[in-house]
Amino acid sequence: MPRVVVDVMPKPEILDPQGKAVQGALPRLGFTGVTDVRQGKRFELEIAGEVTEAVLADVHRMAETLLSNPVIENFTVHVEQDA
Amino acid sequence: MPRVVVDVMPKPEILDPQGKAVQGALPRLGFTGVTDVRQGKRFELEIAGEVTEAVLADVHRMAETLLSNPVIENFTVHVEQDA
Q1: Residue A31: its chain B contacts at CB < 8 A?
Q2: Per-residue pLDDT tens over the stretch B29-68
Q3: ipTM of the assembly?
Q4: Topology (CATH) of B3-80
Q5: What are the pLDDT tens digits along chain A (83 aa)?
Q6: Is B66–A29 a contact, with Cβ atoms under 8 angstroms apart?
Q7: What binding partners and quaternary form does the record give (chains A, B) (predicted)?
Q8: Considering only alpha carbons, which residue of chain A is nearest residue B31?
């Protein structure tokens, strides 16, 4: 069944307290060399039938209206073929 | 600067109430054809310097110990080259 993935990330100009918390924890756990961490969301949508242009347009509308907050978040949509 | 992405998703056998909530909302918003939704997390790590095998091994350990809960979540690590 085809799978469409929507990645939602905070916009670069938006503060990301979750990402900052992770970034702050890394050195305490002994990890160095990470200069920035951003935390976002990943949605995996299983699609019934083929992923047509119309389906992708629908997923874009879902991402805009339900999965992301366009004021503070960007999203990307891509198709992952799955077993 | 190279970017390493860690995707964290609930294991298939684990209930995913957030995903189910999204899935339940889609028909009410007029979207059909989505048979399942899983919601997870996406972490974007900016790395200082090159992404070597040692860095990727470090990121795997971060993912295991800090970014995911291995009891209920799976994770994948991949590199995204960025400007």
Answers
A1: 58, 61-62
A2: 999 999 999 999 999 999 998 999 999 999 999 999 999 9
A3: 0.93
A4: Mth169; Chain: A , (3.30.1280)
A5: 889 999 999 999 999 999 999 999 999 999 999 999 999 999 999 999 999 999 999 999 999 999 999 999 999 999 997 64
A6: yes
A7: Part of the FGAM synthase complex composed of 1 PurL, 1 PurQ and 2 PurS subunits.
A8: A58
| Chain A residue whose CA is closest to B36 | A46
Tell me how far apart the alpha carbons of residues A2 and A25 are, in angstroms, rounded to a whole number: 37
Cβ of A43 within 8 Å of Cβ of B44? The answer is: no
d(CA B59, CA A58): 35
Interface A:B, Cβ pairs < 8 A: 100
Cβ pair A44:B47 closer than 8 A: no
Q: Can you say whether residue A39 is alpha, beta or left, with left for phi > 0 and alpha for psi between -120 and 50 degrees?
A: beta
- Using a 10 angstrom Cβ sphere, with 0-12 exposed, 13-18 middle and 19 or more buried, the burial of residue A30 is exposed
Contact call for A58 and B33, based on CB within 8 A: yes
